Amino acid sequence: MRKLHTFHGGVHPATCKTQSNGSPIAKAKLPSKLVIPLRQHVGHSARTTVEVGERVRKGQIIGQADGHVSSAVHASTSGTISAIGMQPVAHPSGLPEPCITLIPDGLDEWMELEPCEDWKAVPHSELRHRLRNAGVVGLGGAVFPSDMKLYAHKHKIKTLVLNGAECEPYITCDDLLMRERAEEVLKGAELMRELLYADEVLIGIEDNKPEAIAAMRDAAGKHSGMEVIAVPTIYPGGGAKQLIRVLTGIEVAAGVRSTDLGVQCFNVGTAYSAWRAIRFGEPLISRIVTVTGNVESPQNFEALIGMPIAELIAQAGNLPGTTGLIMGGPMMGVLLPSDKAGVVKATNCIIAASDALFPPPRPVLPCIRCTRCADACPAELQPQDLYWFARAKNFTKAEEYHLFDCIECGACSYVCPSNIPLVQYYRFAKSEIWAQQAGQKAADAARERHEFRESRLERDKREKAEKLAAKEKAAARSEPAPVSDKPDTKPQDEIARKIQAAIDQAKAQAAEVKPKNTEQLTPQQMAEIAEIEARRARIREIAQASTDAQPRE
Amino acid sequence: MLFSPYITKPDSVSKIMLQVLFALIPGIAIYVWFYGPAILVSLLLASLTALSTEALMLKLRERPIAPFLKDNSALLTAWLLALSIPPLAPWWLIVVGTMFAIAIAKHLYGGLGSNPFNPAMIGYAVLIISFPSQMTHWLAPGGLGSAGLDFQSQLNYIFRGALPDGLTLDGVTMATPLDTLKTQLHMNGQMKSILEMPIYGRLAGVGSEWVSLGFLLGGIYLYARRIIGWHIPAIFLITLFAISGVFHLMDPARYAGPLFQWFSGASMLGAFFILTDPITSPTTPKGRMIFAFGAAILTFLIRVYGGFPDGVAFATLLMNICVPLIDAWTQPAVFGRKDER
Fold it and tell me: FRET pair for B262, CA 20 to 30 Å: which of A113, A404, B47, B249?
């Protein structure tokens, strides 16, 4: 039996998983349209490769990965592109993002796929390239392009951790995936292990999912060096840092890559999608979504990416009293600004919220420093102090108290007896600090640019003068040197004098030369010019005054 | 419901404070058993004063009144103060003390969560400095003193200052066991013979030792319910035990034993109910231990060498001052950064 480690804190909210994990994964019906955002991943938005009116087939790339960190997006079914433009997306900001709208033709006709039986014979760089083109990203919620995480060139990766913990209440998509498709998940893990040259694969599953554990253990028997480990059910035990800690004892601090410590972590759904992409050439065009909460029959759907969330909810059965839709779990999920947005790769769960399930927050009282938050914090922070600093906008102090180590799991807010929305305060402080840093960066860049320009002008002037001086010197040397005339003149002084003379001459020339086009003008034109000159002078004066007024560093 | 998390633990300040009030009940019940119901009158007077002062201050500060009145924090302050002063005292004593605690020590510092000093202990300090004589007339436990007082007579004294004919205040009250010990030692009494006086029982004072046991019981309940942590009570009691034990071993004739220190005065009330006030104590585990250690040393020193009958209140206030510094000094290492220090 493997010795498990623990992490500090954690909470035990009601898991609410039995509502949706009782029935098998259902295939969601083909929706009336698909709204596919071009950016569903961390990194650069994909670049459109289709045009409005174009017919596309299922699995065809409609957005090409663009830039170093990026991922492709695909047509989730066959049909016609009806629009390319800004649409509301499943993001809490409510800001529209570029999306491709696809009207399905109902044929669900696949493009030519390139399956690969013997993937072990394919070079790793080619496998990574295929994953990128298949749009495989982290399905645990982070949606980081997976090909970027499947390198092992700097550090030896000892352990590949497969995350099937699924600690958030309500969500059961990974549970059902592991129950029904354990073998393919593990084949994906095999592929990932190969790419990482990892020694072992540890699969962590919270012990409230006995069926999934059994199915995975069953499948793992066929693979060597893979271990399915039941970990205690505690939120946020499914956070990558927490699961790595529990399984290996390694603590990955904020800002540190787990690979530097010899561990890489993937969600089980990602492993499954990676396998489908490599073995069958199927891009990531659907995912399993738990639809639960205030719906008639909570269950898991295999839904096409881009399927309008309203249509997905309707398939589970709308119920009256729904006050909003949460994407993700109740601890870290986001309230969707619109049900018209499409399912994206990050959509693991949609909870129809009602007042009965999520009562309106109680009035906020002052902090009584009871430190229940500190007891619950898995990052071992002092949330009550961070709250104080964020509230006082004392951001320097907040950073000193490791604000950026906060993983925003919400455990502190969950336990707070004063109902303080602590995580909101931390998000606020973080964004303020980011804004400050961005401002500082812009100011630094501007100053650098200015200083560089000044130095360049200075240099040009100097070089010109030196050139002139050198020319004169060369001319002087060709004549007989009048050494005896000035025996006390040092050569340096001579050069300096000549440079000065050259500068004087240049200045005199500049003063003499007048713009030719201002000669022989009519008096009217002259008056106009004078007026313009006066206006310019005034503007210069104002500009000068305003720069003087600004504080200098 | 706008931001995650959308669920919260059904816990509230009001429930926490209520649990603490609940945990005081065994001690109060024993108190009534030994000293009669006068303490209930003080508790009631203190509660009414605290709630009305709280309401008035909230109104003056333009804060919502109902949610704060319901948080039970003012009631807790009132009860802790009432349990710290003699029950047989003129009614205005507890009223003045409570008003000061709530209005000055709590609200003028910013109200709930912002007061640096324990309000009940500020109330106690004000009373013992301003009205020392009223603060030393403690009721004699049942069976001691020249005569017991029935409830009617206790009420008569509290509200009208009148005692039954033929009785004097000195006849029905006495100094606390701690105070008596100090006075007797001062008059060159021997520890052994002092402790044979009728006011002393098995551990400390007759009656008061049982009340202390009641508070210990309530304190264990609070720990079991995770309302308080172990750091403060355990370190406070262990330190008090250790230092009084060392002194007692060196000179048993002049220094009472550790159990005597534990069960007299406000040791138990302080360890579990006063020092553990989250608002005025440190937030880090290490900080709490330093805080409790300091409070125990100060309590002992004030009891033995100071001019006041008990040391818990001043020890608490003195350590309250140190809290921000202790917190700043004892920040624990965060996840993944244990090697950085």
Answer: B47
Nearest to A275 by CA among A130, A450, A384, A70: A130
Which residue in chain B is spatially nearest to A381 when comparing CA positions?
A: B334
What's the token pair of residue A83?
């629009």
Residue holding tokens 């360049």? A456
Peptide bond into B5 cis (omega under 30): yes
Count of positions (residues) in chain A:
553
Model pLDDT for residues B175-206, shown as the tens digit of each residue = 788 888 888 887 777 777 778 777 787 777 78
- Nearest-by-Cβ selection for A424 from B3, B279, B281: B3
The answer to whether the Cα torsion of B110, B113, B117, B121 is positive or negative is: positive
Q: Residues of chain B whose C-beta is under 8 A from some C-beta in A?
A: 1-9, 11-13, 15-16, 64, 67-68, 71, 73, 111-114, 278-279, 281, 283-284, 327, 331-338
Q: In whole angstroms, give the CA distance from residue B311 to residue B31.
A: 21
**Cβ–Cβ gap A410/B5 under 8 Å:** yes
The C-alpha atoms of residue B138 and residue B230 are separated, in whole angstroms, by: 31
Burial grade of B207 (CB within 10 A; 0-12, 13-18, 19 or more) = buried
DSSP state of B107: G
Q: Is pTM beyond 0.80 here?
A: yes
User: What single-letter DSSP state applies at residue A394?
Assistant: -
In this structure, are residues A71 and A46 in contact, taking their beta carbons and an 8 Å threshold? yes
Q: What is the rounded end-to-end Cα distance, in angstroms, of chain B?
A: 40
Q: Which has the closest alpha carbon to A506: A456, A477, A463, A455?
A: A463
Please tell me which of the candidates A335, A358, A417 has its beta carbon nearest to residue B13: A417
CA end-to-end distance (rounded Å), chain A: 62
Helix (H, G, I), strand (E, B) or coil at A475: helix
What is d(CA A142, CA A162) in angstroms, rounded to the nearest whole number? 14
Nearest to A338 by CA among A56, A15, A90: A90
Please report, for residues A403, A422, B4, B197, the alpha-carbon distance to residue A408 in angstroms, rounded to integers and kept in the order given.
10, 9, 9, 62
Enumerate the residues of chain A whose CB falls inside 8 A of the CB of residue B333: 380
Least confident among A184-193, A392-401, A525-534: A525-534
For A281-306, the pLDDT digits (tens) are 999 999 999 999 999 999 999 999 99
3-state percent helix, strand, coil for chain A, nearest multiple of 5: 40, 15, 40
Residues 6+ apart with CB under 8 A from B266: B84, B274, B310, B312, B313
- Residue A469, H or E segment: helix A422-478
Strand-pair category, A73-74 with A61-64: antiparallel
- Cis peptide bond N-terminal to A236, omega within 30: yes
Up-side HSE of residue A209: CA atoms within 13 Å toward CB?
A: 38
Give tens-digit pLDDT for A88-115.
898 877 789 999 999 999 999 999 999 9
CA distances from A461 to A454, A464, A495, A499, A507 (A): 11, 5, 16, 11, 11
Please give the C-alpha separations between residue A193 and each of A5, A134, A223, A274, in angstroms, as whole numbers: 23, 19, 12, 12
Q: How far apart are CA A352 and CA A360, in angstroms?
A: 15
Look up the CATH number of domain A26-350. 3.40.50.11540
Structural domain spans, chain A: 26-350, 367-462
What is the secondary structure of A1-24 as a DSSP string? -PPP---S--B------TTTSSSP
d(CA A494, CA A476): 11
Report yes or no: A132 and A236 within 8 Å, Cβ to Cβ. Answer: no
Relative to beta strand A97-104, strand A79-87 is: antiparallel
Beta-bridge partner residues of A70: A44
A330 neighbourhood in chain B, CB within 8 Å: 4-7
